[in-house]
Design brief:
alpha+beta, GTP Cyclohydrolase I, domain 2, 9 helices, binds zinc ion, single chain, two-stranded antiparallel sheet, 43% helix, GTP-CH-I_C/QueF, binds guanosine-5'-triphosphate, 197 residues, one-carbon metabolism
């Protein structure tokens, strides 16, 4: 996964695309466009230069609050974290994306902002909505050792709303769960689903 974003190459390619579109990349409004797009890609695809393993270390702030973490009915839910992503099939924007995370702590709790940081960074990749959930779950599992994690993501895909089938307002929901406790306990899944909805 570890890569550098080659901004010079992106600039050159965007210039070619402008030519292929029949436009003039030297005209006033387009002169800086390749550079702007390269800079934008550096920002919106920042997650492509960071591996999941690196995120475990970068966002791995935890607190060894055993008494709290291991309390029998403790569940932590962070809801409606807004993120953006890009679909890998069309390079089209996924927008109005919100991520909600529920997890059962074990021995320690994760710093709450780190859940949002992980979701944000995983979104900054060429993605499938389903994979965003899988990757967030994997990173949170590695950081917390949790045996029950559920991720709900809702969002709109501009490749479905602004082109192709063009159905604005269509929203997609994906659910990912991870860990022995949630995989083996249908009633826990049911309860968390209600809490996330
Ligand atoms: N499962 C999944 N599919 C996605 C996601 N983002 C985009 N897609 C779909 O990827 C598919 C690509 O289909 P293709 O038939 O290869 O491409 P296309 O001809 O542009 O398809 P249309 O969008 O139907 O016009 C489309 O059905 C998209 O809706 C995603 O996050 N998850
Ligand atoms: Zn798409």
């Amino acid at each position: 996964m570890k890569r550098q974003i080659d901004t010079e190459k992106i600039e050159a390619c965007i210039r070619e695309i402008l030519v292929a579109l029949g436009d003039d990349p030297t005209r006033e409004g387009l002169r800086e466009t390749p550079k702007r797009v390269a800079k934008m890609y550096e920002e919106v695809f920042a997650g492509m230069t960071v591996s999941n393993e690196e995120m475990v270390h970068l966002f791995g702030t935890t607190f060894e609050e055993e008494e709290v973490a291991n309390s029998p009915h403790q569940v932590v839910i962070v809801r409606d974290i807004p993120i953006f992503s890009y679909c890998e099939h069309h390079l089209a924007l996924m927008y109005n994306l919100t991520v909600s995370v529920a997890y059962l702590p074990k021995d320690k709790v994760i710093g709450l902002s780190k859940i949002a940081r992980i979701a944000d960074m995983v979104g900054r990749r060429l993605q499938l909505q389903e994979r965003i959930g899988e990757e967030i779950a994997e990173i949170i599992e590695k950081i917390t050792g949790s045996e029950a994690i559920m991720i709900k993501i809702e969002g709109e895909h501009s490749c479905m709303t602004a082109r192709g089938i063009k159905k604005p307002g269509t929203s997609t929901t994906t659910l990912t769960y991870r860990g022995n406790k949630i995989e083996q306990d249908a009633s826990l899944r049911q309860e968390w689903l209600m809490l996330l909805n």
